[in-house]
Amino acid sequence: MKNKPLHKDTVVIHEGYDDKQHHGSLAVPLYQTSTYSFENAVQGEKRFSGEEAGNIYSRLGNPTVQVLEDRIAALENGAGALAFGSGMAAVSSVLVHLTKSGDHILCSRGIYGCTFGLLGLMEDKYQITHSLISMTTEEEIERSIKPETVCIYVETPINPTMELVDLQAVVNVAKRHGLKVVVDNTFTSPYLQNPIDIGADFVLHSATKYINGHGDVIAGLLVGKDAEEIQTLRMTVQKDYGAIMSPFDAWLLIRGLKTLPVRMEKHTSNAEKLLTYLKSQKLVESIYYPFDEGNPQFEIAKRQMRAGGGLISFTVKGGKESAQLFMDKLSLIKIAVSLGDAETLIQHPSTMTHSGVPVEDREQMGITDSLLRLSVGLEYADDLIDDLESAFAALEQHSTTHS
Ligand SMILES: *Cc1c(COP(=O)(O)O)cnc(C)c1O
Asked: Keywords on this record (predicted)?
């Protein structure tokens, strides 16, 4: 049993923690401390010089946070991980680590709004440029590489259209050009997709979403395939920019992470039931879900994802007015951004998460006024379907009385 790597279902519960070293405490203790005392002056000297491993100060490392870092590294098949105060802190830290003034970042089109904002900031202040491309073929990726390109930054599935980037194609091109590959894996969680297995160098998560799963923490995680590089990042960008995770948030995340596998199974099975239901609705125009027979990218999905996950986007007939009316007629399903919580959430990308994207870009990305995004939660599927049913009935009535 010792030599066999543990399955993900076991890793989320046991990795990186030995209760015998903590008075038999079965739950990982919360080390709510800012500093650590040294046994003597020489030990302090050795900890600072790196000659002796051990705690110094909680911005440089904390035992509770360490358990979470070890678990996420094991789940993503990486060699090391760092915990951050938000998903955006993980994004900005890895990009600051990989770039210098004058460099270029090649990105998948449709990245998270604040990542887009960060890239604008980097361009304005440090002349670090970027291009946004669809990344569907190796040729297209190859064509977009410039002499100053240093990394490829990818999100897949893309929010909110659920379009996929072919990770193998990205890795193949990156290898030929010696570029680092960073994947924002928030939408699938480490349970459904592991980009390091395909050849990515870094994987990051907004742990606010599926990893925590309970909607009560803002946090980020970054996993690297090279342990030394993660250690460098810890002792440079993370230490000096200081965007660390608090021990309490790590403690909550350790608790949330334990149920990630069972939650992802249920998110997926609920999403599949809602998908079947939505397909039967005549007021629904199009549906976007990675594991859908009708999805032209189904083959890519099957190659790099284990299942479809909990996010479904769809369009309703009648544009913005219908979309907003539909949302207002829901009661169990909450109108909220974010995703990956136990509660089912619905949002309207064109007026909410993507309202800052210029209209032409939005239209090019397929984010129309009739598009809605559902983060399917963990409730009983038929209760969710009943809620959707009453909203569709109201919409139907509205369209007959107004036509
Ligand atoms: C939420 C999110 C982020 C940002 O994470 P925060 O924890 O809110 O800082 C980044 N990428 C994706 C895909 C997200 O959904």
From this structure: Lyase, Pyridoxal phosphate
Which protein residues are within 6 Å of ligand 1, measured from CB? 86-88, 112, 114, 155, 159, 184, 186-187, 206, 208-209, 218, 220
CA of residue 185 to ligand 1 center, whole Å = 10
Specify the pTM: 0.96
* Architecture of the domain delimited by 8-30+61-257: 3-Layer(aba) Sandwich (3.40)
SS3 labels along the chain: CCCCCCCHHHHHHHCCCCHHHHCCCCCCCCCCCCECCCCCHHHHHHHHHCCCCCCCECCCCCHHHHHHHHHHHHHCCCCEEEEECCHHHHHHHHHHHHCCCCCEEEEECCCCHHHHHHHHHHHHHHCCEEEEECCCCHHHHHHHCCCCEEEEEEECCCCCCCCCCCHHHHHHHHHHHCCEEEEECCCCHHHHCCHHHHCCCEEEEECCCCCCCCCCCCCEEEEECCHHHHHHHHHHHHHHHCCECCHHHHHHHHHHHCCHHHHHHHHHHHHHHHHHHHHCCCCEEEEECCCCCCCCCHHHHHHHCCCCCCEEEEEECCHHHHHHHHHHCCCCCEECCCCCCCCCEEECCCCCCCCCCCHHHHHHCCCCCCEEEEECCCCCHHHHHHHHHHHHHHHHHHHHHCC
Q: What is the pLDDT of residues 355-392, one digit of tens each?
A: 988 888 888 888 999 999 999 999 999 999 999 999 99
Spot the catalytic one: 166, 184, 249, 387.
Answer: 184
9 is catalytic: no
176 catalytic per annotation? no
Query: What per-residue confidence (pLDDT) applies to 251?
Result: 98
318-365 residue pLDDT tens: 999 999 999 999 999 999 999 999 999 999 999 999 998 888 888 888
Q: Where are the domains of the chain?
A: 8-30+61-257, 261-401
pLDDT digits (tens, 9 = 90+) for 218-240: 999 999 999 999 999 999 999 99
Q: Note if 209 is an active site residue.
A: yes
Q: Which ligand 1 atom lies nearest to the CA of residue 339?
A: 15
Q: 261-401 belongs to which CATH class?
A: alpha beta
